[in-house]
Amino acid sequence: MDNLIQNIQGIPLNHYLIFCSVIFAIGIIGVLIRRNVIIIMMSIELMLNSVNLLLAAFSAYRGDASGQVFVFFIMALAAAEVAVGLAIVIMVYRNTKSVDIESLSKLRW
Amino acid sequence: MTIFYFVAFLSIFFALMTIFTKNPVHSVLYLVVTFFTFTVHYILLNAQFLAVVNFIVYMGAIMVLFLFVLMLLNLNKDIEPMKSNVVKVMGAVAGMCMLATFLGAFKVLESSNEFVTGNTDVGLVKNLGKVLFDEFLLPFELSSILLLTAMVGAILLAKKETKEA
Amino acid sequence: MIELIWLIPLLPLIGFVVNGMGRNFLPKRAIGIFGSGVVLVSFILSCMVFGDVLAARNAGQESAFAYNLFDWIRVGSLDISFSFLVDPLSALMLLIITGIGFLIHLYSIGYMSHDVGFGKFFAYLNLFIFFMLLLVLGSNYLIMFIGWEGVGLCSYLLIGFWYKNSSYASAAKKAFVMNRIGDLGFLIAVFAIIATFGSLEFDAVFQQASSFPIGDSTLLLITLLLFVAATGKSAQIPLFTWLPDAMAGPTPVSALIHAATMVTAGIYMIVRSNILFTLSPVTMQIIAAIGVCTALVAAFIAITQNDIKKVLAYSTVSQLGYMFLGLGVGAFTGAFFHVLTHAFFKALLFLGAGSVIHAMSDEQDMRQMGGLKKNLPITYFTMLIGTVAIAGIPPLSGFFSKDEILAHAFVSNPLLWGLGFLGALFTAFYMFRLLYLTFFGEFRGTEHQKGHLHESPVTMLLPLVVLAILAAGGGILNIPEALGGGNWLANFLSPIFAYSNSRVEAIHVDHNTEYILMGASALAALVMAIIAYSTYVKKKRIPGADGQEQGFLYKLSYNKLYVDELYDLLFVRPLNALSKFLYHVVDKAGIDGFVNGVGSFFMSSGRGIRQLQTGHVGFYIFMMVIGVIAILLYGFLNV
Questions:
Q1: Per the UniProt record, which residue ranges are transmembrane (chain A) (predicted)?
Q2: Along the 109 residues of chain A, how does pLDDT read in single tens digits?
Q3: Beta-bridge partner residues of C67
């Protein structure tokens, strides 16, 4: 364990930021280019996770447990979100026989 | 030290695979792998509790839920109509712009001597539990209500509508 | 008695409230009795007050009694109290208003008995009496102004009493607007008086004013403004056109408001403020000129009118012109004497005309009348007395009052006398024309009207008889010395003119001149009566239908000198055009345009932006990303 810890010593905080930003951007791109609602939700999960990781990294950097507590809350939230979201997807699919986001064009005035 | 970069590379690779694979089931599987690499990251940060929770909740529960829904709706084949290439390029460009703005806003490209040491004990279950049940007791209890609500909501939404009496 | 003075105006106000509230469910008889009763009680109280004043005068004591009800406005050095002033002038006015007012109330019971608005009518009449009493009782210009405005309002309400007829309603509107012009003059005059004298109480103002030099420019301004007010209320050139139109109201209203009381408010006000006017000779000359012009013009118009009430209306304007002539030449007593006698005979004539109209089933055109002498003997007889009185034939009342004015005018300026004399000729002519056309000759109405002819009920005849007696005998109040009289009225009123007489020598008319003038006018009136007789009775010259070819002067007179048309051209049309301009350009295009423009700007920009709401979730996410980028860029660039 100690070796492991030694190994990661010296990773700059900036690199965590870059790494998480990249993952977040990938999530964004996923949301933007896919039409399958489920994939879009997965991309959102990806974004959530990138933020989680960044929070954990900051928490470790600052030596403050609050960041990790927040990660825990975000996970609870994500679980709730996914449960409801997927329920909605099922409803939509039942009504339109499709999970295509383009078919959900009723969301306007 | 190199482990971080290797795992980071894997994360990015599988994340990309997640969004570019056409078959939704494969997508989910790639995402599971991505989340596994995240678990490794948590371990590297000595955030043991998070690593475990991530492993159980995300990979075990949430991703299985996705997979379950895909199977339920019988969407495992590649039937998704793809967006036009213009939209894809625009999406990619927008995402890149976002990344560039992030990087710029965080000023990450400037050199700094701030380093993350993974040797803190804050991520241990014992320490985290003390904080969670002391300082964050009320939000913790509230999150349980949130989960209950989500559960009720999900059941209500997904339930087949009974015929009106 | 003075302590009960507040009851005199209060009673009609109570009558107004009770009749106004109960107009829909009280029986007509109760309304009539109550409405007339309160005025009768006021009249009795007025008589008692008058008795007190008379006793004080005869005993040579102070005859002006002030009664302070309460302090009203007290700001800084300005102190206006709600107080009444009883002196010989207001005591006499009280008698006229409540006395004639009562008779006309009595008359209205019969005249309005078939009208659905009976209760409303009596409520308005009572309200009018209240305001009129306030006008004459007020001990300062502000109370007077309240009454002044109030009677204008009642006049408006009563002219437009049959408001369903749109021409009546517009006549009411016209009267109101014309009165407003005058009222504005009054209001500005009140401000000027406050600015100059620091008080509105008659006492204080007149006392200070009496030490001003003759021809003072401030007094000139104040008096001119007050005179503008008087021209509005008392229907003088140029604001006289409302009075003939005001005949749209019920006849008792014409008699009460537009002949006997309200229109004399202007004269009362000037008589009251005589010191101010005495000290501004320029204003006096203007008043005399306007007065004589009005007298002449109105008399000229009256000659050719065929509507019985229109003739009387122009006659009223003409007689008011005489009163102003009297004021203008400094014959304040004469003018006020004419107010008194005019109130008697003009109320009489109007009520008589009302009786005729009532008998003729609401026919007002004299061309449709004729020969009514047989059917309406009492009405005829009383109308005859009224006509003789107004024509100025001795020994009836009009002779004395008119000749006093003319005699003073002669001394002041023979030209004024000449014009006034000419007007008097016209007056005699058109009044006898009215009498002959109505009561002599053959009946010219329809068979239905003929069958319906009847003498009026006793409630209508009683006032006629009383007024006829007053019109016949009113002259004895002020028989001039030249005829062996004692000038009782002049002596009675002399405290009112004390300040004026102390500054300006009262006009003295030579007895011989007076004899000649009297003889001339009496003779002339008789001659005109005979000419009218030969024209309308002997030759049976009945005025033709409206479209008939006539001489230039006739047309000019018949069309009322085209004054209405002139005003229409000069004021109404430009104002209408201006209103249209303001409406279409300023209001519609400018203000509405701006307001609507703001609305439609947001509407159209909303409609444009709404295009972004495609409903496609993917697009929304895309926009969200752009938004996030924008926010981050903003933060980044601002750090």
A1: 16-34, 46-63, 69-93
A2: 555 554 445 688 888 888 999 999 999 899 888 888 888 899 999 999 999 999 998 888 888 888 889 999 999 999 899 999 989 888 888 887 877 777 777 666 5
A3: C84
Which residues of B, range 27-46, sit inside 8 Å of A by Cβ? 27-28, 31, 34-35, 38, 41-46
Q: Which domain holds residue B150?
A: 124-158
**Residue-range definition of the domain harbouring residue A62:** 2-103
pLDDT (0 to 100) of residue B30 = 92
Residue of A nearest to C626 (CA): A28
Contact A104 C617 (CB under 8 A): yes
Chains touching C by CB (3 or more pairs below 8 Å): A, B
**Gap from C620 CA to chain A (nearest CA, Å):** 10
* A vs C: CB pairs below 8 A: 29
- Whole-complex ipTM: 0.86
Q: Is A75 part of a structural domain of the chain?
A: yes
Which CATH number do you get for residue A67?
1.10.287.3510
Does the beta-carbon distance from A101 to C618 stay under 8 Å? yes
CB of A104 less than 8 A from some CB of B: no
CATH number at residue B46: 1.20.120.1200
**Cα B73 from chain centre:** 22
Same domain (yes/no): B70, B129: no
Check whether residue B71 and residue B11 sit in a common domain.
Answer: yes
Residue C539 pLDDT class (50, 70, 90 cuts): confident
- Domain presence at residue B145: yes
**Alpha helix segments (H runs only) across C360-497:** 377-391, 397-412, 414-439, 447-452, 458-473, 488-493
Model-wide pTM > 0.90 = no
**pLDDT tens digits for C306-349?**
888 889 999 999 999 999 999 998 888 888 889 989 988 999 99
Domain count, chain B: 2
Which of A31, A102, A109 minimises the CB distance to C621?
A: A31
Q: Please indicate whether, in this complex, the C-beta atoms of A105 and C615 are within 8 angstroms of each other.
A: yes
- Whether residue A91 is contained in a domain is answered as yes
One domain, residues B69 and B135: no
Q: Under an 8 A CB cutoff, do A90 and B153 touch?
A: no
Interface list for C 608-627 with B (CB within 8 A) = 618, 622, 625-626
Interface test with B, best of C617, C629, C638 (most B CBs within 10 A): C629
In a domain, B88, yes or no: no
The β-bridge relationship of strands C65-75 and A11-12 is unpaired
Instruction: Using alpha carbons only, give the angle C306, C457, C39 rounded to the nearest 5 degrees.
Output: 95
Counting the structural domains of chain A, the total is: 1
In a domain, A109, yes or no: no
Integer Cα distance of B97 and C331 in angstroms: 102
- CB-CB neighbors (< 8 A) of A42 in chain B: 18, 27-28, 31, 66
pLDDT score of B76 = 62
In a domain, A108, yes or no: no
The 3-class SS string of C69-97 reads EEEEEEECCEEEEEEEEECHHHHHHHHHH
Query: Distance from C607 to chain B by nearest Cα, in Å?
Result: 25
Q: What is the pLDDT of residues C357-416, one digit of tens each?
A: 888 888 888 888 888 888 888 888 899 999 988 888 877 888 888 888 888 888 888 888
**Which residue in the set C618, C626, C635 is minimally distant from B105, CB to CB?**
C635
Count CB atoms within 10 A of the CB of residue C374: 10
The tokens of C85 are what?
């002033």
What DSSP string describes C270-321? HHHTHHHHHT-HHHHHHHHHHHHHHHHHHHHHHTT--BHHHHHHHHHHHHHH
Q: What is the pLDDT of residues C246-305, one digit of tens each?
A: 888 888 888 888 788 888 899 999 999 988 888 888 999 999 999 999 999 999 888 888
Task: State whether B91 and C622 contact (CB < 8 Å).
Answer: yes
- The helix-helix angle for C458-473 and C88-111 (nearest 10°) equals 150
Query: Which chains have 3 or more CB–CB distances shorter than 8 Å to chain A?
Result: B, C
d(CA C81, CA C79): 6
Across the interface, whether the CB atoms of B69 and A90 are under 8 A apart is answered yes
